[in-house]
Design goal:
The structure is a single chain. By secondary structure, the protein is mostly helical. The protein has a domain of 105 residues. The protein has a 3-stranded antiparallel beta sheet. The protein starts with a strand and ends with a helix.
């Protein structure tokens, strides 16, 4: 702004209008303008209200910016406390994770040792089974050899069995036995006894 007049560019910036709108306002008489050396010049007096409004809005904007800065600082200090709390929590979590990792490693070592012992026991049992299998194989070989030797032995010849001749029964002996022996009591004897 030079002196008591504003150029058209300054008015356009001040009012935030286009060049065409400026020429229309000048033609309608809303804005007072004078021509000097072919340039339009606008007296400052007619823009006092606009300048004051802009200055007020600028001061309000500056106040709002200051308020935002202060609020941001307050939030940053609050956040700084929360950030520190989060960092402490993160450190605690890291320690817990490290403890769990160490515990897992110890469990893993114990499992590996148990697996190793189990594998060793399996190897011992496997060798025992192999030895037993060898013994069974040797026993089978011995039994086969015994069977082969037994088959090579001379077999005794089987003699035909002679039947003993049957004796003829002596009639006299059987009759005398019948007389001396009492008759067995059976049903007939019982009925006889009942009827007597």
């Amino acid at each position: 702004m030079e002196g008591e007049f504003l150029t058209s560019k300054e008015v356009i910036q001040l009012l935030n209008i286009s060049t065409r709108t400026l020429t229309r306002k000048v033609a309608s008489g809303d804005l007072k303008a004078t021509r000097k050396k072919g340039k339009l010049l606008f007296p400052k007096e007619q823009f006092k209200g606009v300048v004051e409004k802009q200055e007020d809005s600028l001061s309000k904007m500056n106040e709002a910016i200051q308020n935002l800065k202060e609020e941001f600082r307050r939030e940053a200090t609050k956040d700084n406390g929360t950030i520190k709390a989060m960092e402490r929590l993160q450190e605690e979590l890291k320690r817990e994770i490290e403890d769990k990792r160490k515990l897992l490693e110890s469990y893993s070592q114990q499992i590996q040792e148990k697996d190793k012992n189990y594998i060793d026991q399996l190897k011992v049992k496997d060798t025992q089974i192999q030895e037993l299998q060898k013994l069974v194989d040797q026993q089978q070989i011995l039994t086969k050899q015994l069977q082969d030797k037994f088959l090579l032995l001379d077999q005794p010849r089987a003699e035909p069995v002679k039947e003993k001749p049957k004796r003829k029964a002596n009639k006299k002996a059987t009759n005398s036995k019948a007389k001396t022996q009492p008759k067995p009591k059976g049903k007939k004897g019982f009925w006889r006894w009942l009827t007597e």
